[in-house]
# Entry
Amino acid sequence: MPSRPQAQRRLSTASTPIRRSGRKLTTTERGYGWAWQKLRLLVLADEPLCRICREQGRITAAEEVDHIDGNAHNNDRENLRPLCRPCHLARTARDQAFSKHQFRPEWLKPSTIPLVIVCGAPASGKSTWVRSNSKVEDLIIDLDVIGSGLSGQTLHGWDKSKWLGPAIRARNEMLGDIGRSTDHWPRAWLIVSEPKAENRQWWWDKVQPERIVVLETLPDICMRRVRDDRARPQEPTREAIGKWWSEYERRPGDEIIRGE
# Structure
């Protein structure tokens, strides 16, 4: 059985420049100055074919270099991939289509490997449950793990105002990977909160998981866990727990687990 690549490895945490007084950022400030142009040429020389086309069995010359995580200042080689112009334009259009963070991207395809979606309130035990039921070679897609890795900050304390967009783009890239034919992982696990039945139905219809598991861990238990875990932001997490339960609806077909 093939081993799992480091799907959630830490990426570069170079900061994005701040726009001052409404001034338009220069090309260099946006990450596309002369240094980028030299790096772009090196990447294209090293890998001259479009990576997406090659994965789909087509041979197409690459003309552009894409930042996989969407952060123009993360120029680690593993974050750069060569693309042909049509694939790059499609990627750009897709990003613009969810400029306000696309939690549920319409372009997703059904998973080609067994997928389990795990939902629940903050501190309901989603990550713990997945760890206890998954195998080391499985792919676990957890937005908090991705955001923490991108930002270099703690698992529950990463700055969502700055890193949510890049984290969601990276998560969506992983979801896109399992929608293509792959033998990298025998199974995938997606952790999302999704209290509303209609949103869980959306995931069911779009990626066609093997099952959706909902952890119905009662609010007082979640609150107690938050109090005991001082690494979590206390007030925002308590508010999020209350909001989740105020919106929660059961959906026929979900596998319900009562957290303890």
Notes: The longest strand covers residues 115-120.
